[in-house]
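TICKET: design request
STATUS: open
ATTACHED STRUCTURE:
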């Protein structure tokens, strides 16, 4: 897989936090049995398996009012779990047609469970071939937090960013499957450090 191309900005002297999610190639297709046309719209889908965090998903076959936002091209909306059998979408269903059929489907890529069996590491360097590490993150020291819902959060304390001294740099982020030994480069890009004005 190609790594996510994402440039980062670190504010010197401030806590740096970057959360994002990794979804597998496995698609979950769940039947929608009812739609509550409210704002936001609420859907019933037994055993949908959604995590607690919002997930990008496609919704089909429940009426043009939602399909216009989630088409056959798999444009995504964000769905949020309410309970084991219900979820919500931040769209206005109050003027939509009633859902009376059985063709509705929720389709989403299953989040990677990173809560065990994975480690992560990331380094920031002035350039790709630079030998000096400007900043480092690892799951071992808690600067990378891995979660069961595919969540990956990078964290640097304000005392760490305060000591950084560069203008532009590069990084990449790698995840290691400890069971198979397979390493995935998940993200890469440029890093900009914005100097602070307020100093103590």
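STATUS: resolved
RESOLUTION: sequence designed for all positions
ATTACHED SEQUENCE:
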């Amino acid at each position: 897989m190609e790594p996510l191309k994402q440039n980062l900005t670190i504010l010197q002297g401030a806590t740096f936090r970057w959360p994002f999610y990794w979804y597998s190639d496995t698609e979950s297709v769940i039947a929608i049995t009812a739609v509550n046309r409210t704002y936001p719209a609420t859907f019933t889908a037994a055993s949908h398996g959604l995590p607690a965090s919002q997930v990008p998903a496609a919704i089909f076959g429940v009426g043009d009012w939602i399909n216009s936002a989630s088409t056959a091209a798999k444009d995504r909306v964000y769905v949020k779990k309410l309970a084991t059998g219900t979820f919500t979408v931040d769209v206005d269903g109050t003027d939509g047609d009633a859902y009376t059929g059985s063709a509705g489907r929720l389709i989403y890529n299953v989040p990677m469970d990173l809560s065990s069996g994975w480690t992560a590491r990331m380094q920031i360097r002035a350039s790709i071939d630079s030998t000096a590490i400007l900043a480092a993150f690892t799951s071992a020291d808690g600067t990378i937090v891995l979660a069961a819902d595919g969540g990956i959060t990078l964290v640097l304390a304000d005392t760490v960013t305060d000591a950084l001294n560069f203008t532009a740099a590069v990084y990449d982020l790698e995840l290691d499957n400890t069971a198979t030994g397979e390493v995935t480069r998940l993200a890469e890009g440029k890093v900009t450090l914005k100097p602070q004005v307020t100093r103590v």
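CLOSING REMARK: Residues 158-162 form the longest helix (5 residues). DSSP finds two helices and 16 strands in the chain.
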